[in-house]
């Protein structure tokens, strides 16, 4: 009759006490003890978490149970299962920093990029609206962009947050890195277009804006907005040889005789 048998005997005794408990407080305490026994003595973390969940359903503020689950969230066995139990508890209680912590555990252990993006959007919203940390919100959206660089929600928020936090250069570096990794031409063009705008309008670096518009025209030869942007920037910086080559490209892309004639005239002047 070994130690394991004795622990199972104790478990049976505790479960009988649960059935006979006369108050919710006593039941919660016993449920916690059952969970603790499963976790520390019998090595079944999933059953322990289930017992902890039942305790918190009766008393969401039970300190010992919350402490036990928090330890499991940051452990190696069933961290996501524990996090899912704590998620609604912290959300209801308005414990937003702790809620972000359990959501981050879910991000770490989720292999689906799109699911990670959804979680990171929640984290960004909590940081910005509930915790008041716009920099952390920007960082969460930046991580979401790495997981899915074409997500409209991420792209919609990240530049707004860059304006609030002044993190235009990190955003530019992020756009450049993600555009360089992408094999999807429309996505590359979109990211490079955003990058060129950031370099020109937000950071005032015309040289880098020009280099980015050139990348767009290399990726997509007939991208007229990029060619027109180069025309505008070369004219503004008096880069006449480069403007001449750009006008030749515009002539190739022109859609009518009048447009061609006007471009030929400008090319002759240049």
Structural description of this entry:
There is one protein chain. This protein is mainly alpha-helical and 270 residues long. Helices cover 82% and strands 0% of the residues. It contains 15 helices and no strands. It has helices at 3-20, 24-40, 45-58, 63-73, 79-93, 96-108, 113-131, 134-147, 152-165, 168-181, 185-202, 206-219, 224-236, 240-253, 257-269. Helix 3 (45-58) packs parallel to helix 5, helix 10 (168-181) packs antiparallel against helix 11 and helix 11 (185-202) runs antiparallel to helix 12. The mean pLDDT is 96.
Q: Percent range for helical residues? A: over 70%
Task: Give the ordered list of helices and strands.
Answer: HHHHHHHHHHHHHHH
The overall pLDDT, averaged over residues, is: 96
- Uncertain segments are none
Q: State the separation between the terminal residues, measured CA to CA.
A: 99 Å
Shape: rod-shaped
Global Rg: 29 Å
Count of helical stretches? 15
**Biggest β-sheet strands, sense, barrel:** none
Residue fraction in strands: under 5%
Which structural traits does this protein have?
single chain; mainly alpha; 15 helices; rod-shaped; 270 residues
Tell me the layout of helices and strands.
Elements: H1 3-20, H2 24-40, H3 45-58, H4 63-73, H5 79-93, H6 96-108, H7 113-131, H8 134-147, H9 152-165, H10 168-181, H11 185-202, H12 206-219, H13 224-236, H14 240-253, H15 257-269
């Amino acid at each position: 009759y070994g130690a394991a048998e004795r622990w199972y005997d104790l478990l049976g005794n505790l479960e009988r006490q649960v059935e006979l408990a006369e108050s919710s407080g006593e039941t919660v305490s016993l449920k916690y003890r059952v969970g603790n026994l499963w976790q520390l003595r019998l090595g079944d973390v999933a059953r322990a978490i289930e017992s902890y969940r039942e305790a918190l359903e009766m008393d969401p503020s039970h300190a010992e149970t919350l402490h036990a689950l928090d330890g499991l969230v940051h452990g190696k066995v069933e961290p996501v299962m524990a996090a899912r139990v704590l998620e609604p508890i912290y959300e209801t209680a308005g414990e937003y920093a702790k809620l972000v912590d359990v959501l981050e555990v879910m991000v770490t252990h989720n292999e689906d990029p799109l699911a990670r993006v959804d979680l990171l959007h929640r984290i960004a919203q909590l940081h910005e609206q509930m915790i008041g940390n716009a920099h952390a919100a920007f960082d969460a959206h930046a991580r979401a962009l790495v997981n899915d660089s074409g997500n409209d929600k991420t792209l919609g928020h990240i530049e707004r947050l860059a304006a609030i936090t002044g993190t235009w250069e990190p955003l530019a570096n992020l756009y450049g890195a993600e555009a360089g990794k992408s094999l999807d031409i429309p996505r590359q063009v979109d990211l490079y277009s955003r990058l060129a705008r950031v370099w020109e309008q937000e950071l005032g670096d015309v040289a880098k804006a020009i280099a980015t518009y050139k990348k767009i025209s290399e990726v997509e030869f007939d991208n007229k907005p990029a060619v027109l942007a180069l025309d505008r920037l070369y004219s503004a910086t008096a880069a006449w040889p480069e403007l001449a080559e750009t006008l030749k490209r515009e002539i190739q892309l022109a859609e009518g005789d009048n447009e061609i004639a006007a471009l030929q005239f400008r090319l002759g002047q240049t």
